[in-house]
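We emphasize that the prediction below concerns an isolated chain of 227 residues; any contacts that depend on oligomerization or on bound cofactors are therefore not represented. The input was used exactly as deposited, without trimming of termini.
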Amino acid sequence: MPKITRIIIQTIILLAALAVVYFIVSDKPETPQDTINDNTTQVPQATTTPTISDGVISFSVPTDFALAVTAEQVLAKKQIPPCYEGFDYCIYYNSDFYKDTNFESAGVTINKRPDLKTHDTCLRTLPAGYSTIGSTTAEYPEYFISKFGPLDDAAAGHYATGEDYRIFTDQKCYQFITRLGQSRFENYPVDKVREFPAADATRMLDKLRDIVGGVTLVKADKNIQLP
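Result of the prediction step, given as a token string:
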């Protein structure tokens, strides 16, 4: 075979191979990084909320809250802690969104109450430290529920509010206590912190109620209703 012919054939083979490689590369689907530009809106990845169950009830932990089963696990160390001492579970707000305000803490104290063995003792026993307090009760086929409140608490320069919910179901009593703690804005030097807005305090209390309202009765596979 003449030399010039071999060169032509080799050149044709090389060009054909390059064409195949180009086709494979150009046909590859673009990755998300390839398509991102300054005008693209990034969609946050979905987050999960852990669910805790003892076989009778279950409850979930919102993504901006954390779960503790001991006081040492509560990372929000404040003058007024998010949960009462001796809790079985503490679901507490774990975001720094309000770090430059007089917001202190927020949480839900969860306790099983084996000492309150009957419907009446579960729903009617007053919260510790109260001789009288407003209460509401409601009755449903699968459970009974009561609410005591408001629970007001104070320390030097600090104060808290919340509610005490009791659920009696399957011959067991459960207690859920909401708590929102704040420090007194007027005690700070001027321009030291921003005031925690009353509207945000209302929203936070609603978040805490939503945690309690999200309690599910496992056997009935339904959420409770708050009174």
